[in-house]
Amino acid sequence: MTELVHPLLDLFKKSMKHGRLAHAYLFEGAKGTGKHQVSLWLAKRLFCTNLIDEAPCQQCINCQRIEHLEHPNVHVVQPDGQMIRVDQIRQLQAEFAKRGFESGRQVFILSQADKMNTQAANSLLKFLEEPSGEVLMILETQSLGSILPTIQSRCQIVHFPPIATKDLYEQLLQANIYPQTAKLLTFMTNSYDKAVEISQNEWFNDAKEEINKWFDYLKNDDFMAFIFVQRRLVPLAKDKNQQIQLLDMLMFYYREFLQTQLMQVKKVQAINQALAAILNAQRKLQANVAFQAVAEQLVLHLLKKQ
């Protein structure tokens, strides 16, 4: 397991180095911005037995147990169905009462904290009103406005901005995703969670190969590109979301091709026109024009422009 890449880690490294870690944090940001990864990183940093440059080693028994949610002093709460219920918060309080004084530091992580019902939120508030130096509480949310202001006021709020493309690419490489696929995924989304989810989808991997073939036909001015639409792409694209993703992939291949042709003015002009045509095709799909008609018109336009 390799070291986590996230722009906020330096902030926490400095806080911990100077003994200024807050007792409660509220991590807010869109899905896939790394909130849960950083929560686990903080827990590992507290319990790691072999720190490397102020960061957890990711290899010791404590790091491994936290990674697999098996550490007795690190408690992760997920919604029970559609919400976090009061009995889940009370169970956390019971865990602290039972273990806190005999086991040292405790870390409590509430994933999707905005899913707490009223009773759970009030119970958590009482817990936060009596902070202990031995407890680190981390709340994660995509919706800051759904968290009670009284809870917000007792936490240090940390905003998680969208992940920079370079950082997302590095994270995907660490997740053992091939470099070219990782580059494609960063073009399709700026969410780590979404990128990993897409990469594990069998349809995505099939579609990636088919669009690569389609692009080769188009690039070589081969009329097979037109036939390919009906034979391979129409059966592949079952709904509008998949159809738009196919055109996203085609746009990615054209953009990559553009980087290799920057010294050839005519080629650059043709590729830019192709990119504009793909964007126009996506607008037609959004306007409910049939995918086959859109894709075939796109092929005829691109072949004429080569």
From TrEMBL:
InterPro entries, per database record: DNA_pol_HolB, DNA_Rep/Repair_Clamp_Loader, P-loop_NTPase
Lineage of origin: Bacteria, Bacillati, Bacillota, Bacilli, Lactobacillales
Any one biological process term the GO annotation gives: DNA-templated DNA replication
Gene3D superfamilies reported for this sequence: P-loop containing nucleotide triphosphate hydrolases
SUPFAM superfamilies for the chain: P-loop containing nucleoside triphosphate hydrolases
This protein's name: DNA polymerase III, delta' subunit
Top-level division of the source organism's lineage: Bacteria
Organism from which the protein derives: Enterococcus columbae DSM 7374 = ATCC 51263
Pfam families named among the record's database cross-references: DNA_pol3_delta2
Record-level Gene Ontology MF annotations: 3'-5' exonuclease activity; DNA-directed DNA polymerase activity
